[in-house]
Amino acid sequence: MPVLSVFPPRNQSVPPPPAPPLKPGRDEGEGAVVVERQTQKTEPPRLYQVLLLNDDFTPMEFVVMVLQEFFRHDLDTATQIMLKIHHEGRGVCGVFTKDVAATKVELVLAASRRAGHPLQCIMEAA
């Protein structure tokens, strides 16, 4: 029984199908839509302040350590922020995008819990 193949023999090539003819009097670009390019205006991300709240139990040295470790403040700046927290009840540790601020809050809360301190850290829109 002969085998039928849909493929041409190896040494022959199949010619490409012919292009459809253009209709007379019709331009190739007819019916094309031109879209004007519009510049997209992206807004910068909203910023959030990370704040530490004063309490009567967390040692000042721990607050300074948190400010240095998690917010990369030098000793003098960390001490100034700690004194502001102590005297005014709250102080700004830094300003970040939402995700970064939320991460910093969670890191500070976890560190204060591990150390056994009730230090509160919150974030609010800047």
From TrEMBL:
Residues 14-23 have a biased composition (Pro residues). Coiled coil: none annotated. One of its GO terms (biological process) is protein catabolic process. GO terms for molecular function: peptidase activity. Residues 44-121 form the Adaptor protein ClpS core domain. SUPFAM superfamilies: ClpS-like (SSF54736). It comes from the Bacteria. Keywords: Hydrolase, Protease. Involved in the modulation of the specificity of the ClpAP-mediated ATP-dependent protein degradation. Belongs to the ClpS family. Binds to the N-terminal domain of the chaperone ClpA. This is ATP-dependent Clp protease adapter protein ClpS. It comes from Pelomonas aquatica.
